[in-house]
Structures are given as C-alpha cells and as structure tokens.
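Tutorial handout. Part one gives the primary structure; part two gives the three-dimensional structure as tokens.
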Amino acid sequence: VQLQESGPGLVKPSQTLSLTCTVSGVSITTNYNYCSWIRQPPGKGLEWIGGINHSGSTRYSPSLKSRTSISRDTSSNQFSLQLSSVTPEDTAVYYCKVRDNQYDYWGQGTQVTVSS
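Part two.
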C-alpha cells in the first residue's frame, strides 16, 4: 500500500491550499475504509483536519470546518483537500492516511508553507 501527497509547497495568504492523495494497493471505496487528512505545524502535534468514508460522507474538524472541503475521485483512487483563506498559521506538513479494517497507512507528508 502506498499513499502519495501532491500539491504546491508554497501558498500565498488568503489563497486556497489544494492537495491530492494518490492511493495504491487499497481501494478508498472498500467498505469501512476511511481516508483522512492530518497536519503537523512546526513544533506542534498532529492535528486531524477531516476525512471521507467509503461511501463519500465527510467529517471535518470543528475548528477548520468553515474553510475545509474534502472530495474524492474514485476512478483514480484519489482523495483531495482544499483549505481556503489560508494564513501563515496553516503552515505545516500535511499527511494523508487511509485506515482499513486492520491498519493505518500514511503518506510521507508534504510541506506546505503559507507566505507572501
């Protein structure tokens, strides 16, 4: 199983951060599989951003809900994150994760810096 995050490493303040997670070796639509986005700001712990389940239902962190959208492309076995109106506080390493009935699979993470 492999997960790979992709997207711009630098985003300007007030713009929208967009990342895609390409998944291989496990289907994001298999029953009970759950796909998540998680981030880690510098010097801080992991923060769950939100997720999408096998049937396409989404949940978001209350603190980020107003700015977050998670979607998926089942034909490509990908899921995506959009975070709008970013500020420098959104600078972090962003990870995607898939949980099946046995394991958590993580991407390697991608650094996103918000700066003008």
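Part three, for discussion. The chain has a mean pLDDT of 97. The radius of gyration is 13 Å.
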